[in-house]
Fold:
Amino acid sequence: MDLNSVSLTARLTRDPEGRTTPSGTSVCRMRIAVNGFTGNGEPKADYFDLVVFGRQAESCGQYLHKGSRVCVAGHLANNEWTDSEGAKHSRVEVIGRQVGFLDPAQRGQDQTTEPARQGQKAPEHEPSSTREQSSQAAPAVA
Structure:
């Protein structure tokens, strides 16, 4: 069996975008920046799309915002779809299994959104029927 595991510490580059799938699963999409250095020692940022599901998606949508610091544990997934004009697209995404909030807590705010602690299992990947819809903007989850 191959290993597909990702651990990142990053900042959100924009506010989270939440939605609910037709089956009722909450989905939160975020764009994150991971600061690092080039081979020459010059500062450099790498950008990734992050997707989380279920109750942790709801928590991320509620408590995170542009500039928030997070630590993420998850895996990579290749999201492929065909648009309405027949063009094929693909995008590698980080599927977050666990997201920790690294900024100081606001009053009443939980600092971790670990699915196991909340009594649910994070999906392995977004169902294909929602992949096409997920690339479109959707209203925030209430």
